[in-house]
Specification:
alpha/beta, three-stranded antiparallel beta sheet, 13 helices, 10 strands, globular
């Protein structure tokens, strides 16, 4: 790489941090090992070189190489990596939201009618927030997870509804909670004709967008009250490190069944998937879950961060 190319890449990295992650120039300087004045000049250079418009037009070359290597190592159809060196979880999540929205937008731009299976969670919701408005009424968004929260309210992570609004398409939701109260209740929910039609539509989606969740105290399923302290401890004792749509798996990516499976109503997922399922997750906290999802073949595509990609390749 020439000196000019290195300068452009450094400017692009600084622009990502400043315009996308929202970190200060002082924090950029600290992360990149530079003075504040140099960091300020890099941000200005990126703007002057035309990299900064609505998005950062210059891909960080190092991240492109990492994405290719991760894609090859795990046999993925797609991989995207965002800069993350020395950044905190909040900044990484914002970068993932922007890159994830860009990936979604590529599929949404198709003229042919598409069916999108959609999971839930903070990362996906952030992606939809930055997704541009586009007129694609021929597309459909189908929920892959119950739309009813624990307290009988509509879940605030109703991502597919927000996505359908952004592209003016149809929205299909699962009329059930994530976990039924009893196995008998689950049978009642899943026997409903609307439930069966919606889940069948989701299973046949052209592409599915899902989050990859960690399983530890304070994780979303635990914080939202879907699983108890005792259940988290029991799952961890059995080697569980991650979940997708409430499906738990261990470090090797193997499915781990438990008491919650008798109550789970979300769309069926399987390891070594042949479906087009893109997972979105990053940060050190989620690394064990991301690695396990790749090991087990739960996803065919991945959008993650630089440090996670480096760690995946290091092993």
């Amino acid at each position: 790489m020439s000196r000019e190319e290195k300068k452009q890449e450094l400017a692009a990295r600084a622009a990502w941090m400043y315009y996308v992650a929202g970190v200060t120039q002082q924090e950029i300087a600290r992360a990149l090992g530079l003075s504040r004045q140099v960091a300020q000049r890099l941000v200005s250079s990126a703007r002057e070189m035309g990299m900064v418009s609505v998005k950062i037009d210059h891909p960080v070359t190092h991240c492109l190489h990492l994405a290719r290597e991760v894609q090859e190592k795990f046999g993925l159809q797609l991989c995207r990596v965002v800069p993350s060196a020395n950044l905190d979880d909040g900044a990484i999540q914002q970068m993932l939201a922007v890159e994830g929205a860009a990936v979604m937008a590529q599929y949404i731009s198709e003229e042919q009618p598409q069916v999108f299976g959609i999971g839930s969670g903070k990362t996906l919701r952030s992606m939809i927030d930055v997704l541009p408005w586009v007129e694609r009424p021929q597309h459909q968004c189908v929920s892959m997870i119950g739309a009813i929260a624990r307290d009988d309210s509509g879940t605030r992570y109703d991502v597919p509804l927000k996505m359908a609004e952004k592209m003016q398409g149809k929205y299909f939701f699962i009329p059930a909670p994530l976990y039924a109260d009893t196995p008998e209740d689950k049978e009642m929910w899943i026997q409903h004709q609307v439930y069966q039609r919606v889940t069948q539509r989701a299973l046949q989606a052209d592409v599915a967008f899902v989050g990859i969740g960690e399983v530890q105290p304070g994780c979303p399923l635990h914080a939202e009250g879907f699983i108890t302290d005792a259940q988290v401890a029991a799952l961890n004792a059995r080697g569980v490190v991650g979940e997708m749509l409430g499906h738990f798996f261990n470090q090797q990516g193997e499915r781990v069944l438990g008491e919650t499976d008798e109550l789970l109503t979300s769309v069926l997922l399987e390891s070594k998937t042949q479906r087009q399922i893109i997972g979105f997750a990053g940060s050190e906290r989620k690394y064990p879950a991301i690695r396990a999802a790749l090991q087990g073949g739960w996803v065919s595509g991945l959008v993650t961060d630089e440090d996670t990609a480096l760690e995946l390749l290091r092993e």
